[in-house]
Write a structure and sequence with these properties.
Elements lengths: L17 H23 L9 H47 L9
């Protein structure tokens, strides 16, 4: 116990209830996200002052992470539609400009 707070560690224990297991799984799922925010989005050090600066830093880092995720999704969709458009133009140009075969002996 630290300051009247009980610490629970995820260990194989038969007395752990289903609710506690869910909480451990939920916490384990969010840990990698926090790690990426700290490492990739400069949250290891805060250059803004005070608790308001801390909040601004977290919000901006999370917004940058979400924006990057959306840009990656848009990039995949753009490439898909660009390839589809190229196939469309390639198909119709082959119909319009039929190559004439030259027979040489």
């Amino acid at each position: 116990m630290i300051n009247n707070t009980a610490l629970h560690t995820p260990k194989p224990d038969k007395d752990i209830t289903q609710t506690k297991r869910k909480r451990h799984k939920r916490r384990a799922a969010i840990e990698p996200v926090i790690g990426h925010l700290k490492h990739d989005y400069r949250m290891s050090r805060n250059y803004l002052k005070g608790t308001v600066g801390d909040a601004i830093n977290v919000i901006l880092a999370a917004a940058a992470m979400n924006f990057k995720r959306m840009m990656n999704k848009w990039k995949v969709e753009f490439i898909f539609w660009a390839l589809k458009l190229l196939r469309f133009f390639n198909f119709y140009t082959q119909l319009i400009f039929v190559p004439k075969l030259k027979m040489t002996f």
